[in-house]
Amino acid sequence: MNGLERVVRFVQQCHWEALPSPVQRRVKMALLDDLGATLSGTLTRVSRIATDCALETLPGKEATILLHDERVSAIGAAFANGYAANALDIDGCAQYTRGHPGAQIFPTALALAEKLGTDGPQMMSAMVVGYEVALRTARCWHDHHTTYQACGSWGSVACAAVAANLLGLSEEQIENALGIAEYHAPDLPMMRDIDTPTMVKHGIGWGTVTGIVAAQLAASGFTAIPCLLGFDQYKEWVADIGQRYIMVNGIAWKQYACCAWTHPSLDAARSLMHRHNIPAEEIAHIRVETFHEAHRLGTELPTTTEEAQFSLAWPLAVLLLDNEVGPRQILEERLGDEQIRDLAKKVELVESEEFNQLYCLVSVGDPRGKYVSAVTITLKDGQQFASGTTEGGVRFPQGWNEEQVERKFRWLTGFVLDQSHADKLVEMVWNFEDVSHADELSRLVAHY
User: Fold this and answer.
1) Which residue ranges form the domains of the chain, and what is each CATH number?
2) Average pLDDT of 402-429?
3) Is the full-model pTM beyond 0.90?
């Protein structure tokens, strides 16, 4: 049995009752975090644009665009909710992906579960399929392609796996669905958007669309080329699917609404501020030593939320002033704040070859790798405080528990829901195996 055959069998045969308890626990945490990111992401302009686009071009009554009180086709709902899920860059990261699987997997699973009348356990097992296929596909994808492509590329294959599981496709159809999704996956040159941040970002919405359409085509007999997952050189990377669940230690949740590459710098600076009681108004200069990709984020002052998320200086400055980086700090309404702008102008970035090597290791899943930075803060009176090499909160394994994920969910949804609705959603997710129809989740926030 080759690697692709093992993946296909896992996609078809994954059932909730057979999943180990650590996997069941992990997918509930992922569901709650993905939901929180999606709901808070509706605050953004990109969410409104994606909703309007779905209403016009992907109409229907099959599934819900969360908090916009609109129903469209399942494809349309996955598309719009996907863009909302990644709109604040607060959604989770995962090993091997160099990006965001959950922002694609959750919207795809929810939209199809609504359409098909799927219960909670079925929807969660489809999400497990999505995560396990995503992490393995992304590892192969980044090895196979010379250009670093963003999440909607490999995510198309993961979303096809989610859809294939929920649609109950045959093994032959699943194999074709994965191949169709890979062949039609969008080309997303990630670093071009890092250099010029815009709404295209990680291409999340197109990952959901490509994946669902691929599964639907396969169900009708559409054929495809063999998927990367079946290549001989990747056999060892996929052979353990269904036996080893990478998602248990391979998901990391984000504390800050900005690119994960900034997090080591933010954690280093925050630690210095707290340890030495440094007043922000006394700072004269902030030197950040970091790896190449984080250095590329730059220090240019943002004019849009996307520029704020893909900056290093802005989230660093706002964290030192507000002690958080969330919707309040990175949406457009705050970008004219002169105090933040003045502090951001004091940030200097320096690229470190040592840190580059550590990043290269972590990007391919080598346990010796780390996302690290070092920050030195100089005060107006000449005092200096140095953090030393600091690893960021995005790491594998990360160690977050249910309490931390719930706390983050309540923080994010506090911008869009009242506490009683948040309480009901938290209770529902922690007991999602008892939900008889997945659209109970969507209906809980409808007409809010």
Assistant:
1) 3-253+402-445 (1.10.4100.10), 260-391 (3.30.1330.120)
2) 97
3) yes
